[in-house]
Write a structure and sequence with these properties.
The structure holds two protein chains of two kinds.
Chain A lengths: L1 H4 L5 H45 L16 E4 L11 E8 L2 E11 L7 E8 L4 E8 L51 H26 L6 E2 L3
Parallel strand pairs in A: 1-6
Antiparallel strand pairs in A: 1-2, 2-3, 3-4, 4-5
Chain B lengths: L6 H11 L10 H7 L3 H25 L8 H23 L1 H7 L10 H11 L4 H31 L1 E2 L4 H4 L7 E2 L11 H31 L1
Antiparallel strand pairs in B: 1-2
Classes of the chains: A alpha+beta, B mainly alpha.
Bound molecules: flavin mononucleotide (FMN).
């Protein structure tokens, strides 16, 4: 537009063009707005369903009541959980008590990019399951940790900070207990570290994580 | 002005003779980036096809009012809005596919094959012809995405038609498993370039062979 405006001899048609362009832009915006309102509810439902679908396998074996996403706790950044930014914990209810917590955290030191993880813990700190929500690791190398490619994440079920002791919470190559993927130790190392940090964090703040009311605002557990 | 070419030969042009990806080599970024399996190729192909047909429709319908100095911003506004709509539709109807295609749905905006059709065809032809042109050229692009996706999935992973549920709903489908593992190279970015090169070379070879046999027939 600025280019056109700087040519005085085309001045009359500039206005015309501007009006045409604005009209088309307005019509297009209306089109987008209509689509947005038409699909908004469905998209929100899909996102909720996707979240629940991902949460469920991470608390395998723990009986619960109600909606898994109904009692979120937002932990404000900075915190000692893996990943920058606020972290979300979904508390799982049974018989009026919180029996488990699902942490959504991000391992930042993957081979390609951040790895979003879902880590399920019972109230006593025992792992109920680990799920990889999102990653960009190399297909065929780093992505072998993904639950759709192998059952690598299953080795964490029933483990906790005492089993094995914290210094053994590492992959075998680093002297720890956990299987790595041969020829790709960077991705598993990042994930094991993220799980260990989450366990340590939970142990330190267990009471408040299990009892703080869900206000929707970010809080800092004691 | 009306295009009198019969539909069948227009399809032939879009799918083969003037295929936007294979011959004009347009829109290579999505083509190379998402085609690690068949379903991704099909999903992005269909989205591109829809945007192409609709943008041709809108460009053709408004062509009388579009002065030539502002036609490019106009096309961009139209295409960008359509892509946003398609993205919302994908999020609503094919959430799983939307998750795997991710950024490549919004990036359809930058597919110059769409802009090229608006410029060389829709801005000069009637609405119906322009829509047909969008469908035809979009099909050509989608078909190429599907072929390359099929090939890379087959060689790279040893499966065929895995995860068709992302488009059609239902339980996750593993597809047809032919081998436990494949040639990883095909799934990585270089594999995309190699596959495209194979596709372009094959087309050239087939065309040449045809030409030869045609001239041979003429000479006897
Ligand atoms: C193209 C390419 C992609 C790779 N992608 C990954 C990956 O996603 N995750 C990973 O842990 N290692 C990946 N690696 C391997 C790492 O560079 C490194 O060699 C490996 O993690 C070391 O594993 P090791 O300690 O078991 O030998 C990749 C290597 C190459 C050449």
């Amino acid at each position: 537009m600025t280019e056109l405006a700087s040519q005085p001899d085309t001045a009359p048609s500039v206005w015309q063009s501007a009006v045409t362009l604005m009209t088309v832009a307005a019509i297009c915006t209306a089109l987008v707005a209509m689509t947005y309102y038409g699909t908004r509810q469905q998209i929100a439902d899909n996102e909720q369903a996707w979240l629940e679908q991902s949460l469920k396998p991470a608390i395998s074996g723990v009986p619960y009541e109600g909606d898994l996403t109904s009692d979120p706790l937002v932990i404000s950044a900075p915190n000692e959980l893996p990943g920058a930014g606020d972290a979300v914990v979904y508390r799982v209810q049974s018989g009026g008590n919180v029996v488990a917590a699902l942490f959504v955290v991000t391992a930042t030191d993957g081979f390609v990019g951040p790895i979003r993880l879902l880590i399920g813990l019972q109230d006593d700190g025992t792992l109920t399951g680990v799920r990889i929500l999102e990653h960009k690791e190399t297909p065929g190398i780093g992505d072998l940790v993904d639950q759709s490619r192998s059952d690598w994440v299953e080795q964490f079920v029933e483990r906790s900070l005492g089993s094995p002791p914290v210094e053994l919470w590492a992959i075998q190559r680093d002297g720890g207990e956990f299987d790595q993927v041969t020829g790709a130790s960077i991705t598993p190392r990042a994930i094991v570290k993220a799980i260990r940090e989450t366990l340590v964090y939970f142990e330190a703040h267990r009471e408040s994580i299990l009892t703080l009311p869900s206000t929707g605002e970010a809080v800092t557990p004691e | 002005m009306s295009d009198v070419t019969p539909i069948s030969s227009r399809f032939r042009r879009g799918l083969w003779d003037d295929n936007p990806g294979l011959v004009q080599l347009l829109g290579l970024c999505p083509l190379l980036a998402v085609t690690s399996n068949f379903i991704n190729g099909l999903g992005l192909g269909l989205a591109t096809l829809a945007v192409m047909a609709l943008s041709n429709l809108l460009v053709s319908a408004t062509r009388r009012w579009i002065a030539s100095e502002i036609r490019i911003p106009m096309y961009v506004v139209i295409i960008a809005s359509l892509v946003t709509c398609i993205e919302l539709v994908f999020k609503a109807w094919f959430p799983a596919l939307d998750r795997t295609l991710g950024i490549f749905i919004p990036l359809i905006v930058t597919n110059c094959a769409i802009l090229a059709r608006a410029e060389v065809y829709a801005s000069r032809n009637g609405i119906l012809d322009s829509v047909i042109d969008g469908v035809v050229m979009g099909s050509g692009f989608a078909a190429l995405l599907c072929c390359i996706g099929f090939f890379r999935e087959l060689i790279g992973r040893g499966t065929m038609f895995a995860r068709m549920d992302m488009l059609f709903g239902g339980e996750p489908m593993p597809g047809i498993q032919l081998a436990d593992n494949g040639l990883l190279l095909l799934l990585l970015p270089p594999g995309a370039f190699l596959s495209l090169a194979i596709a372009v070379a094959s087309k050239k070879a087939i065309d040449r062979r045809r030409q030869k046999s045609a001239s041979f027939r003429l000479s006897i």
